[in-house]
Amino acid sequence: MLALINGDRTAPEQAAETHGRARPLQWDRRLSALARAHSVELANGMFSHVSADGSLPSDRMSKAGIRWLSMGENIAETRDVARAEAAMMNEPKFQQNHRANILNPSFTSVGVGIVNGPDGMLYITQEFAQLR
């Protein structure tokens, strides 16, 4: 999924949205652990950006001790990784959505968590951040 994300960020056809400023994201193990933990929640029936304890993505990131300047989160339920990334990138351009998170040139780091659910689906969380 990291290769798909970075391919989308640097593709020439996205230049109008990124102004040519989006660079490949660096993998961050802390963001990945956070993403995986949230994907476990998603797979267990809590399909929302809000966790069972009421925390938002920004709350979870801060609680994990990750110092960030900007952040975003994408979630997906799908049968395969490529299909999830394609669905997010097929959202409308120039709007606040999954696509905008993927292409946001402010973000410098990413972590991805993918969990197989009991229903056979993949539950995916992408955590994006501009770290301090």
How does the SSE layout of this entry go?
Layout: H1 2-10, H2 15-18, E1 26-27, H3 29-43, H4 57-63, E2 68-78, H5 81-89, H6 98-103, E3 109-116, E4 122-131
Parallel strand pairs: 1-3
Antiparallel strand pairs: 2-4, 3-4
What does this 3D model show about the protein?
The chain has 132 residues and is of the alpha+beta class. Helix content is 38%, strand content 23%. It has six helices and four strands, in the order ααβααβααββ. It has helices at 2-10, 15-18, 29-43, 57-63, 81-89, 98-103, and strands spanning 26-27, 68-78, 109-116, 122-131. The chain has a four-stranded mixed β-sheet, with helices on both faces. Strand 3 (109-116) and strand 4 (122-131) form a beta hairpin. It is globular.
* Element-level helix/strand string: HHEHHEHHEE
Q: Treating each run of at least 4 consecutive H or I residues as one helix, how many helices?
A: 6
Query: pLDDT under 50 segments (min length 5)?
Result: none
Structural class by helix and strand composition: alpha+beta
Rg calc: 14 Å
Helix content: 25-40%
Shape: globular
In spatial order, strands of the major sheet run 1-3-4-2
| Strand composition percent | 15-25%
Number of strands: 4
Largest sheet: 4 strands, mixed
**Ends: how far apart?**
24 Å
Average predicted confidence as pLDDT: 97
